[in-house]
Write a structure and sequence with these properties.
This protein is α+β, with helices and mostly antiparallel strands and 144 residues long. Helices cover 37% and strands 19% of the residues. The protein is built from 6 helices and 7 strands; from the N terminus they run βααβββββαβααα. It has helices at residues 7-13, 20-28, 77-80, 87-99, 113-127, 139-143, and strands spanning 4-6, 32-34, 37-38, 44-46, 50-55, 58-64, 81-83. A 5-stranded antiparallel beta sheet has the order 3-2-5-6-7. It has a two-stranded antiparallel ribbon with strand order 1-4. A hairpin with a 2-residue loop joins β5 and β6 (58-64). The protein is elongated and about 70 Å long.
Length: 144
Amino acid sequence: MNEQARIDKWLWAARIFKTRSIAADACKNGRVTKNGVNIKPSHIIKVGETVSVKKPPITYSFKVLKAIENRVGAKLVPEIYENVTDPKQYELLEMSRISGFVDRARGTGRPTKKDRRAMDAFVEPAMFGFDDDFDLDLDDEEEE
């Protein structure tokens, strides 16, 4: 059994990220840290180390139990890492779910295509439509 593995492969193999390229991008963008220091995708992790992964709005912390580089089934994930995330982070996640767009009322938020067309029909004739009686030539008034 290997005692070490690349962090991007481990994050993918432990099913923390869906693909290895997403795991590598997370490392490159500073969302994966070890002991508060950003790490590169090629960084080698060892058994017993703690890795933090920022997935907004919370930061997950995982203790490495096995250093693997091949993806495992979902049932074997508890053997790979131990979730040591602070419970306050989960409270933060719950608060964001409550205040988010889950079960939003119809009509709130971004207008639909039908709403936009109705607004355009309401605004355009008043602002841009000109009557035939309206005279834009101001020179005629000065001559009189």
